[in-house]
What does this fold into?
Amino acid sequence: MNPTVPLGNTPSRPEKATEVSGLTSLFAKPWVRAFMALIVILLIGMIFNANGTFFRWSAHRDMLRQTSVFGILATAMTLVVITGGIDLGVGSIVAAVAVIYSTFLMALPVPFSAASTILFCLAVGAVFGVWNGFLIGKFKFQAFIATLAMMTFARGFAKYISGGRKVMNAIFFPDGTFKYNPVFPEITDWLNSRILGNNIAIVTIIMLCCMFIGWVVLSRLVWGRYIYSIGGNEEAARLSGVPILATKMLTYGLSGFFCAVAGICQAAQEYQGDPEAGTGYELTAIGMVVIGGTSLAGGRGSIGLTLIGVLTMGYLVKILSLNAVAESTRLMVTGAIIVIAVLFQSSRRK
Amino acid sequence: MKKLCLLLGLLLIGQAVFGLQAGEKKWRVGFSQCNLGEPWRANMYEDLKREVAKYANEIELIHKDAQNDTSVQQAQIREFINDFEAGNLDILLVSPKEAAPFTPIIGEAFQAGLPVFVIDREILSDQYTTFIGGDNTVIGLAAGKWTAEKFNGKGALGVELQGLSTVTAAQERGSGFHEGIKGSDIKIIFQVDMKWLEPDARQEMESALSRFPKIDFVYAHNDPGAHGAYLAAQAVGREKEIAFLGVDALPHEGVSYVKQGILSATFLYPSGMDLAIEHVMKLKRGEKVPKRIMLATKAYDKEHPDGVTIGEPVVTW
It folds into this structure.
């Protein structure tokens, strides 16, 4: 692997670094540009350090935990964005899976085992994703429309299963009364815990694993080449024999699978399945992908870039939170930062 | 097709016979709900069904859910007015999504002679029969007094997790609380929005825990917020040294959290369905009903796991 591109660059369009030299060539690299946005955010954090809290590990550990669900969704989003598509259904699939996970483990008179629950949840996510890919690949639906339908359907599905109520450790009876089960499933406790001397959340490790899988797919497998070539020019890819339908079904399927992972993490961290969970998460995930420098036009980008985007947004949220900034100001600052971060990227496309 | 017609005919005859046997005319009570998707409103519907069931021989309920859409709710109220004009409705209960868009149509229903109870959210005129709703300032005040009673004199430091500082309900829950702790040595050291959401409350509480080595209590503007704060404190082993206070007191959320020892207290935001149906019955019997009923709150804590009423409903004629 090229040591100057440690985070994995786009294989289909290598940057021609040999034409320019020194600092200029460094700044031509997308990951350097993405890093600049992150560094700006970190500098802001050091200035507004909330009486030194920003310099404590706990702030960073908590930021990583908080951003993990978003990071997993951003990984899913990166894959479909590189194909030239988009996945608006990610937040709703989080809710559907969170509700299924909580129902199976807590709300049934005889709960399912942890292993079968998780397998079922992952399968549901993957099936939802494959269905998206099928509509987009077979019936030439625009990704926006197909996944918008999924966004609506999966949200309804979550509400249907849960009856519109948060699924918690209360078992309801038909007459409206309920009984409490004081013991939470072990798997939930484990997912909500930390390892390595209490220093890193399990969900953060899970996010990194998902990113590793995404990186392998994009950078090490033929599947990844197909993803880039479809995003670059679908017609050319088809003429050169890329299996468009299969690639799209698999890619959206993997996206759905990652959403299910995120849904399980969400439910475990809340100790409940909220049918309203994940509302608006798709936009945060898209924001992270774009800030990293993956192009919404498709064909260009990488998981490494998305990791930088995830950290940039994660730190921004954390710094605003540490300083107890009011919600209205947060929204304005976040909007401004997205513009600035994308400005760092834009000159590359000239 | 013939069979189907026969079946329908039989059903109609059955209905007619049954209706004749029932004797006195049942009142048909319409309920226009702005959004059944919220847990508090889902619980409100459960309360309503339970109260209506008490008078099953005298009233029946027609429930319409607008799913958080202003124009849908306006259309549904219009349908109710048409039902009333056709003699198929006797009283309307409305919990409007927002004030301004519903002021004219509720006024129109009232002018047409349909008795209208406005529930929970007010409109911008007095063109209705009765308003019944909770008072967020009263609830905040109760929470503040509870905190002052428990912590005054100890120099207690607290975190306030606001619903959304731009929303009236959150402003009132906040100002009531600050009124309640006035004169004590209690200080709020971290005050931040959590958008009524549990994951956001957890994130904000993590920040507070990183910043402040000593936190004595958390006042969250809803129970999920208090629960999220509890989970954040539990993750760093500080949940035992902090009292968590929530608002809403839904049976399976806040009240159970108190019973499980997760929250120290929660304060009821009442649905008022018991009083609403009580006053529907009064109206049916031809009695006079008040113009406004501001509901009292209830505190649930370790000493009162089943709740203790604080104050009285404020009734205006």
Q: What stands out?
A: Residues 56-349 of chain A form a domain with the ABC transporter involved in vitamin B12 uptake, BtuC fold (CATH 1.10.3470).
